[in-house]
């Protein structure tokens, strides 16, 4: 396993991290379709991940109504010091009107609840899961800074925010000498490269780590589907429940998949491994979060850390997946191409 720095913290995290959205939720109307793993299965996944060198594990208080955190906390157990533990808050976790969002009230409540469920007295990376348009970002950041100063949180981060929202938060933190975001968890894949327009260059400029969720697009980039819509693997998430959370152009998706399969065949590895290796070759990406239901899925995903794609591989994958250039990028590149560093011309 290889390790990369988490932002500018000096903390090393594994470039493959384990996501816990498949943990728990057997009776939940939504999360039962993601995996609904019980304690024994979670214990095996966590043990395998840690033994393979993974030290970065991500969950959220909303996953399976908190059961994911409980299962994860018990599985980590005595190996707590070996794990950079990340969780998130924002989504509704109860029936009350204040059981959601990023108000100081909810941040403090949610933090205490997550600490209790995880069975720990500190969280390494506490992330806001969305942008709360009803709460001033100053209030949210003040509450998070208090949590850091109290020793209950080591670092803070965000997920699913726009570049301008992150920039506003970073500026606010700097103005008030508060803890600032060190990482942004975002969706990024060969089928969804929107992040390259603003989020990737913003992260590079600010020294922010990017951690990637849904890099395999709900299993689509594992190669388990054909053009007729049928699942080659009937046990895949899409086949079992029609899960199609991440929007993408399906026809373009199959064109990308054709190239992905060809590259995978050349290296004699799975398409999933190539898709993850491609992400690890992208600018500002620190860690790719993998969610697994089975040990064989996890071990195959972990092996992506050892796969080095050639320049030819990267070029082929880039050409088939490249999105159209957006304004103002096209005018900046077109009118002043000699003022753009090599490698940033996209």
- The CATH superfamily bears the name NADP-dependent oxidoreductase domain
**CATH architecture descriptor:** Alpha-Beta Barrel
Please give the alpha-carbon distance between the first and last residues: 30 Å
* Number of structural domains: 1
CATH level 3 topology: TIM Barrel
Overall body shape: globular
Mean pLDDT: 93
What is the name of the CATH class? Alpha Beta
Radius of gyration: 20 Å
Counting DSSP H or I runs of 4 or more residues, the number of helices is: 12
Strand segment tally: 10
The side-by-side strand order for the widest beta sheet comes to: 3-4-5-6-7-8-9-10
Helix content: 25-40%
Share of β-strand residues: 5-15%
Structure overview:
This protein has helices at 39-51, 67-76, 104-118, 137-149, 163-175, 199-206, 237-241, 250-267, 271-280, 295-302, 311-321, 329-335; strands at 3-5, 12-14, 16-19, 56-58, 84-89, 123-128, 153-159, 181-187, 209-213, 285-290. It has one domain: TIM Barrel, CATH 3.20.20. The chain is of the alpha/beta class and 346 residues long.
Search tags:
TIM Barrel, two-stranded antiparallel ribbon, 346 residues, eight-stranded parallel barrel, alpha/beta, 12 helices
What is the structure about, briefly put?
By secondary structure, this protein is α/β, with parallel strands linked by helices. The chain is built from 12 helices and 10 strands.
List the helices and strands and how they pair.
Elements: E1 3-5, E2 12-14, E3 16-19, H1 39-51, E4 56-58, H2 67-76, E5 84-89, H3 104-118, E6 123-128, H4 137-149, E7 153-159, H5 163-175, E8 181-187, H6 199-206, E9 209-213, H7 237-241, H8 250-267, H9 271-280, E10 285-290, H10 295-302, H11 311-321, H12 329-335
Parallel strand pairs: 3-4, 3-10, 4-5, 5-6, 6-7, 7-8, 8-9, 9-10
Antiparallel strand pairs: 1-2
């Amino acid at each position: 396993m290889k390790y990369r720095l988490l932002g500018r913290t000096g903390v090393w995290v594994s470039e493959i991290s384990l996501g816990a959205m498949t943990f728990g939720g057997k009776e939940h109307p939504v999360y039962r379709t993601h995996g609904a793993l019980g304690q024994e299965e979670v214990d095996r996944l966590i043990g395998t991940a840690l033994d393979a060198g993974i030290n970065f594990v991500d969950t959220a208080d909303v996953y399976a109504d908190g059961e994911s955190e409980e299962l994860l906390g018990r599985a980590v157990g005595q190996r707590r010091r070996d794990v950079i533990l990340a969780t998130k808050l924002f989504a509704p976790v109860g029936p009350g009107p204040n059981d959601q969002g990023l108000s100081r009230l909810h941040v403090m409540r949610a933090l205490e609840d997550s600490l209790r469920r995880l069975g720990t007295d500190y969280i390494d990376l506490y992330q806001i899961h969305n942008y709360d348009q009803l709460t001033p970002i100053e209030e949210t950041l003040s509450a998070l800074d208090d949590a850091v100063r109290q020793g209950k949180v080591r670092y803070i981060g965000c997920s699913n925010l726009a570049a301008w929202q992150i920039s506003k938060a970073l500026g606010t933190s700097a103005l008030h000498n508060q803890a600032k975001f060190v990482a942004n968890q975002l969706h990024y894949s060969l089928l969804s490269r929107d992040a390259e327009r603003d989020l990737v260059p913003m992260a590079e400029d600010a020294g922010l780590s990017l951690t990637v969720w849904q890099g395999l697009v709900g299993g689509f980039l594992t190669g388990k589907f054909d053009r007729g819509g049928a699942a080659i693997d009937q046990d895949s998430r899409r086949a079992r429940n029609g899960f199609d959370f991440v929007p993408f152009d399906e026809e373009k998706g199959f064109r990308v998949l054709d190239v992905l399969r060809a590259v995978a065949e050349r290296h004699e590895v799975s398409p999933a491994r190539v898709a993850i290796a491609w992400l690890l070759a992208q600018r500002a990406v620190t860690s790719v979060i993998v969610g697994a239901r089975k040990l064989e899925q996890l071990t195959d995903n972990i092996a992506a850390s050892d796969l080095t794609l050639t320049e030819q591989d990267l070029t082929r994958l880039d050409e088939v997946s490249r999105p159209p250039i957006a304004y103002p990028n096209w005018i900046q590149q077109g009118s002043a191409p000699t003022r753009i560093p090599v490698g940033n011309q996209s």
